Structure prediction request, 163 residues.
Amino acid sequence: MIRPCTDTDIHEMFEIINDSSIAYKGQIPEDRWHEPYMPLEELRSEIAAGVRFSGFEEDGVLLGVMGVQDVKDVTLIRHAYVRTNARGKGIGGKLLSELLAGCSRRVLIGTWKAARWAIAFYEKHGFVEVDEETKNKLLHTYWTVPERQIETSTVLRNASSVY
Prediction:
């Protein structure tokens, strides 16, 4: 079942994000990795900044989370994570489909260039990577991330949209 996450889910969301993000260790630039990958206060800050999380729950256990954030004239897909032991069951695809069904704006997704598995997942679901110049413009316009993260990230757009 997919449902909106609430304040009571924050500790479980924290666990999911930091369990799943271990896949980045050794893949993303060493200077961008830290443990925990997303501290609890950062998660709270993201929610306060308007990221609305949905979760995939099975038998009362939250197995995956994904957020959306409206910024200016687009919707960003943010913080998509599935527990390591629940991967490969279609949870990420179900969350993405559900969130996209609720979007009436253009959709952008940012991720690490080194996360080829994440890029392939989004491409499988109809997204395409933008070129380097467009990526830089989009990251500066819609995200608040350090310059080093911009250098090491990519952006995908829904295939039917032009940016």
Notes: Residues 2-158 form a domain with the Aminopeptidase fold (CATH 3.40.630.30). Helices lie at 10-20, 40-48, 91-101, 116-124, 132-142, 147-151. The radius of gyration is 15 Å. The longest helix spans residues 10-20.
